[in-house]
Amino acid sequence: MTTSAAARADSEGTILVVDDDVTVRDVVRRYLELAGYTVALAGTGQEALRAHEQRPADLVVLDLMLPDLDGLEVCRRIRGAREASDVPVVMLTALGEEENRIAGLQLGADDYVTKPFSPRELALRVTSVLRRVRPAADTAGSGDVVTDGPLTLDPAARTATLHGGGLALTTREFDLLWFFLTHPGKAFTRQQLLERVWGWDFGDQSTVTVHVRRLREKIERVPAEPARIATVWGVGYRYDAGLRS
């Protein structure tokens, strides 16, 4: 593992890039440095875990296909390394890896980019994810706490509770739940949610499906029979507010 010599005092944050292809690592590093980030590099899953343990990254760019531990296992261990670990993860996947991509999202990955990819697009995706983790200074403290019965979200503190207990939500899960809570009773298509929550003009709509399923597992009494996040057949999803149990 190496850390870029281009690290600056005004760095936008540290990005850990994990890929066994030296060329991919180098190209991604250069584009992220141009965007103002400090970049750490790892070529294997074990190197990535050691690097993140020694210096937790602000975001991890993680290839699914690694020579020792695969990307899914690395993601699983990073998520379990600290209680409710919420470091954002952007996965790199090949065109034919849809099942692994879905599995990555289920593990809490915040975004993915399909190989072959544009390094510039990847840098933009990284910035987009981090902006959601770090609200702008002029809005970070201005968000109102949102509640629906026993469910509470504090956008300034980025915390969520249900019946007084903390909810371990990833960045995207928090953003999606906040969006639902602030737009109760309105039906949104998956594409609209991609645009409003992810900031994507296009993308795989199964991303939304996976995140809705994960949210239901965390906030619904019976996930298979959701009372809060309702499926609107032929449209998408709607948040039904007013639940008091």
TrEMBL record:
Keywords: DNA-binding, Phosphoprotein, Transcription, Transcription regulation, Two-component regulatory system. One of its GO terms (cellular component) is protein-DNA complex. It comes from the Bacteria. SMART domains: REC, Trans_reg_C. Residues 143-241 bind DNA. GO terms for molecular function: phosphorelay response regulator activity; transcription cis-regulatory region binding. Residues 14-130 form the Response regulatory domain. InterPro entries: CheY-like_superfamily, OmpR/PhoB-type_DNA-bd, Sig_transdc_resp-reg_C-effctor, Sig_transdc_resp-reg_receiver, WalR-like, WH-like_DNA-bd_sf. PANTHER family: DNA-BINDING DUAL TRANSCRIPTIONAL REGULATOR OMPR, REGULATOR OF RPOS. This is DNA-binding response OmpR family regulator. It comes from Prauserella sediminis.
